Amino acid sequence: MIRALFITFLSGVLISTSAFAQRVVEDNPVPFEIWLEEFKAEALGEGISRDTLDVAFEGLVLNEKVVELDRRQPEFTQTSKEYIRVRVSETRVKNGIKRMAESKPVLDPAAKDIGVQKRFIAAIWGMETNYGAYTGNYNIIRSLMTLAYDMRRRTFFRKELMKALVILEEGHIEPDKMIGSWAGAMGQGQFMPTSFFAYAYDMDGDGRKDIWTNEADVFGSIGNYLKRHTWHENQTWGREVKMPDDMGARQALVDLTHEPNPPRSCKRALSAHSKKYSLTQWQEMGVRNLDGSDLPQAIGAGIEATLLMPGGIDGPAYLTYQNFRTILTYNCSNLYALGVSLLSDRLK
Ligand SMILES: [Ca+2]
Hints:
CATH architecture of the domain at 2-72 and 136-212: Orthogonal Bundle
Number of strands: 9
Strand content: 5-15%
Distance between the termini: 56 Å
Radius of gyration: 23 Å
Bound molecules: calcium ion
Largest sheet: 5 strands, antiparallel
CATH class of the domain at 2-72 and 136-212: Mainly Alpha
CATH topology of the domain at 2-72 and 136-212: Helicase, Ruva Protein, domain 3
């Protein structure tokens, strides 16, 4: 029974059921077939047609690999320096410049219309899917069905699965092209289905939001996501800065600016940031541009920034502006946001 639910073929070889996958079936009091019928009945009630359901679920069994990946998410062990070296590699910079040039007729007007600098749209595109080259090969319905049946985070994924069916019902993408990463992030900007409905953008105006194959919609959607999360088009993300050379003075500055109550949204990442101060105040506290020159005062005086030192007191220091916090809404990780930011500088 358990084996039948998870049966998968890989190059003709039958993969046996793992202990993780077995637990998913054992932990759920409702057998999978009955659960699926109940879910489909609910979907019909939500306005999904019988045709869409038949096509979407045809031949689908639980995906053992998805369970494995969900249970075995690796602990983060990379140092910030390694992370940036890998994510903002010379190859990725070079590809980014090439892909931005190729997509210029679509990227430039999309960025201008939405009001987000194109280098940031391109940097997220590069970080998420290597500029559309790798969007994941998982059948989204199958992944979300597996995670919705699994008891671990079933409420969250049940909602995502329902929204994924609405995407098919509305005809934004053909069922066989609705692919993405194992946990349900889809297309070139890696949107979850609920994010799709909140932020995906029909940039070319053909009535479909195609974040998988249509670059205008891809760029419009990434840009719209940022814009809707308080993006300032006339500002950058922040800057790398020079801290006082004296270690005692440096530590005193970190202690002085410590933020004891980070915002609840994305607390995990924001707890590593200092309190907000204006660039004028940071200048007064002894922080300088990397080359030792004064922080921008004429245009930057009103800009508030937080100090971030992801590698500790000896490592690089960054003053981050509002746009950095917006990037954190895409993925609540300082290293991710720093990767996007530093890549965007290289794509400028
Ligand atoms: Ca479109």
